[in-house]
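#struct-pred
JK: can someone run the complex with 6-O-phosphono-alpha-D-glucopyranose? inputs below
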Amino acid sequence: MSVKEDLRLKLDINNVFAEMIGEEHGLTVKELEDAKEEALRAHQNILEAEAEGKMGFMELPYKQEEVVKELKETAEELKDKFDNFVVLGIGGSALGNIAVQTAINDPHYNLFEEARNGYPRLFVSDNVDPEGTKALLDKLDPKKTLFNVISKSGSTAETMSQFLLARKFIADAVGEENVGEHFIATTSKDSGYLIEIAKREGMKKFFIPDNVGGRFSVLTPVGLLSAAMTGVDIEELLDGAAYMDKICREDDFWKNPALVNGLIQYLAYKKGKIMNVMMPYSDRLRDVADWYRQLWAESLGKEVDRQGNQVNVGPTPIKALGATDQHSQAQLYMEGPFDKIITFLEVENFGEELEIPGAYQDLAGLGYLGGHSFDELINTEKWATELALNKRKRMNQTLKVPEVNEFTLGQLFYFFEFQTAVTGELLNVNAFNQPGVELGKNYTYGIFGRDGYQEKKDEFENSASHKDDLIL
Ligand SMILES: O=P(O)(O)OC[C@H]1O[C@H](O)[C@H](O)[C@@H](O)[C@@H]1O
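RT: done, structure tokens with the ligand placed:
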């Protein structure tokens, strides 16, 4: 067995079957068998769309040699020049960066980390809360700070507002003429304002392929630059994705976990499991669940199907963290409505063997802990939760991650992206647009636009939908 085989993700779907959790709430193997042709058709459609150049995310593991070289050179050149590397982006232009950072560099990654191993500190600023935004700038020495503005559209209000502020912050410190050296733009090659600005200011630029949507873009320079700047092995990330891609191309249904799971998710949804919980038992995978939430929600939550019929479909993704949320969410998952399918992410080997010291042997309810290790404890808690869910007839399954590293993380990203495409096909929706979000963006623009902000705000507040609001 090669080293890479040792690192292959394993999907354990036993606990979705009726034999395990009961006729009424589970799926039967026959149901999957009967529907497997639908999944294979979905698979075929995806491969055909890929051949037409419409599935950009599937090209990423293979077609980025030049980009990877440039990313690595850039990181090598700039990592010593700057103490701080700040990503300005939102949604698909932020969540992947955070997920990589938490998984590979620091399981407790947050905005205020210390510098490590000669790499700059990474900050990801993905909101426009005035206090948070100001607090971040207060932490930075502008002369030692490099911003990476990420926006595929190049016009997202939150990101561009942050950019305008960051630009002034830098210009005030180093002068207008040097602004460009403190910014890298990651955007579409030829649409939107960011590319125009990048050219004007002489910024370094990286591009997001047109056929890769924001939420599928973690393995483009969107996610790869901050990874490279902080010492993550980006080639291993892409190798992991390529390895999973091969598995996802398998046209024997039962050998293709993305097909099997895409179909399970679809059938579960049809059976009323409209809530989709992702629960890693691992701090490192905490933000993968957050990244997945956007992927699943924006891809599958749709008003119309491919033929334009109103359908209003979409499972609601929920993120949880084991064991923490056993003490917050588990009660609902165990006894609440039968409307959930839970996916656990289980890590087989943690990087740390931490023993629980033995003491108080005379106290039976405590003495049993000593001598075990924390990795035994967290996984035992996961197994116990799984058993309790089975006893309550709750559909659940486990994706086993041999260990968390770049190669397995690349597999995880790719697996979920492919599975999302499959479930989108089965739901007969376009998994690659987000018209609902665009409407909100347009309203922001309409209200916030240059002229008459106050009048428009008053009009909005007095509009019919707000008139009857209860004022506390
Ligand atoms: O990268 P940008 O164009 O700035 O887009 C950032 C985000 O904007 C919207 O909210 C879209 O629905 C997301 O899919 C996207 O990731």
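RT: quick notes.
The chain is about 50% helix and 15% strand.
The longest helix spans residues 29-51.
JK: thanks, will look after standup
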